[in-house]
Amino acid sequence: MAGDLTALDSYGWEALKKSLNQRLVMNRIRLVPSKRNRVWVAETDVRPVVVKQSLSGRAGNEFEELLVARKAGVDVPYPLFMDGDYLILEYVQGDTCDTMINHLFSLEVAEKIGIWLARFHEKMPSDGLPRIRGDSVLSNFVFSEGKVFGLDLEDSGPGDPLDDLGQIGASILGSEPFFTPIKFDLCIRLIESYGKEARVDVVELARPYVSKHLRLYAKAKPLFGRTFVSAAKSIERGWPDLA
Length: 243
Hints:
By secondary structure, the protein is an alpha+beta fold. The protein contains 8 helices and 10 strands.
């Protein structure tokens, strides 16, 4: 339907059909929230898949990063097909990690995100600087059958692994409920889990990076800007005593 933002255009439908390499019956298709792209979950008679229309122009980068990550043994959705700005991906059934952290306060999930990041940084091939995933926020991880899967690798590239760690730590602290003791516990447990997997103590090393990203969030969330800047300054002085 003209003007229907939930609808796939002809290019999207063609990419979907090519990805499954056969005629298909669409049982249901729904648009799902995405801040940067247009994303649908398509339930077909063959299998459920994710259809992603990249609005960033980085579909090719994401497709290649997902292929490399799968080959390296990192838990990510399998990329099925790419055509222009459209990516067709395996659908990973599970709970988003923002739900698991912000509503269920799952220490298990926090620790497994830390392990996922450490393995990504260790296993992804690099030429010079390590590869980081970029856009390391809770909504870009899914918890499925006891595993954490990383989504949305379009920003993956060379960088500082501590920046990933700082961003995910700030994502935990800077999402509601803000800066509560359980949130600090979840943040620190994630960082400790990363360090254990990477075999390096990063709890203090990560602290200025968490502060950095909280300051960036303060600009993006002006209503909470003072709160975020105050928390960033406090973390620059040291982690709170949770005993």
